[in-house]
Amino acid sequence: MTLTKSYLNRSLININDVIYGTNKFMSGIVSDNTDKQSGLVKTPVLGPDSGSSDPTVSTNPSAVGARHINTTSGEVFVATDVTAGENIWKGQLGTDVKPPSYFGARGVMGGGQASGGESNVLDYVTIATTGNATDFGDLLVGNAIGGSHVSSGSRGVIGGGDTTNVLQYFAFATTGNTTDFGDLVGNHYYPSAVSNGTRGVWIAGQADNSSAPMDYLTISSLGNASDFGDYVANTNGGGTCMSDVRGVYMGGHNGSAAVDTMAYITTATTGNATDFGDLVDVAVYSVPGGCSNGTRGMIGGGAEPGSPSIKTDRINYITIANTGNSTDFGDLITGRANMGGCFSDGTKGLWCGGKSPALRNQIEYVNIASVGDATDFGDLTVARDTGAGMSGDAS
């Protein structure tokens, strides 16, 4: 058989089509074979990391979606947020690995002074949904009048108040009574507290106003508190706000008068407080309520200087990372003092209870990112003042 030149040329064209992928009937790709790096060249898909334990917030993945297998439990984790040292991992069996937080979706108000005397009641609300509070459990020590609080996102700790140095704790996800944690260094009368999610610090509040100590503890570890440093002045009854770096104490009473000063600490590092600025339009004491979203901090309510019977409805705010004076935010629905029960989910800030002049059960809220007046949220189960408020995760 004799092959013509034209036939040979057509055959060569068809072969080139196959090789170079220009033939309309064939792709020219025999196989991806990406695991062998032959055929179509692609970046190989890497398998998951593994270890005998769960990942930690310091297990730094390459990207969101990276996987880690706990070879002991068999649980597979997927990275959902990648920030060096603050990574978030979601486990297929429901285990969440994330940095500790000082606020969350569930708000809890504990203790205080009710019409019948000292209250041991714990109430809670779901902050995202307005409505009345529900019973959570009871305090181990009901003598928490003027006590203060810290949160790790999963655990809440209440300490001090009136004449006690007792610390008690509970888990946000499980309703029930509190359990003994340890003791503060001394008795703190109307202290305030801040947290970065890992460490809690109680600021000032000595009964005799002779000193202004600060105590700290590690929220995840039971035990007694340790000395942190000293506040800038002898005071009690102020409000606080915080970020994951800094805690700010606002206002208070120095033994003879209300003050308008603010000072801050770096929560992770022991030492004395440093001046922050002044409250611009009001000096307040009698436990005004403070809350924050980690960026913006607020203080609202309290008593007017020189006139304890006059309760203020003013709300001031600051940017926690920047020292300076506060700015007007808006007004509470009702001027109130002796609140203490304030908390946030990072979006809403809530004020609970108080006195004006009668004991109140009212809860009201603001949207922290937007200046404006407060709105009704619901009611506590028991009207009371000088309680301790905190928030954490319900799951």
Characterise this structure.
- By secondary structure, the protein is mainly beta.
- It has 2 domains: 49-97, no CATH class; 106-392, Neuraminidase, CATH 2.120.10.
- Helices cover 4% and strands 38% of the residues.
- The chain contains 1 helix and 33 strands.
- It has one helix spanning 5-20, and strands at 49-51, 67-70, 76-81, 88-91, 96-97, 106-110, 113-114, 117-118, 121-126, 134-138, 148-151, 155-159, 166-171, 179-183, 192-195, 199-203, 213-218, 226-230, 239-242, 246-250, 261-266, 274-278, 289-292, 296-300, 303-304, 307-311, 314-319, 327-331, 341-344, 348-352, 362-367, 375-379, 388-392.
- The chain has a 5-stranded mixed beta sheet with strand order 1-2-3-4-5, with no helix packed on it. A 4-stranded antiparallel beta sheet has the order 10-9-6-33, with no helix packed on it. The chain has a 4-stranded antiparallel beta sheet with strand order 11-12-13-14, with no helix packed on it.
- β4 and β5 (96-97) form a beta hairpin.
- It is globular.
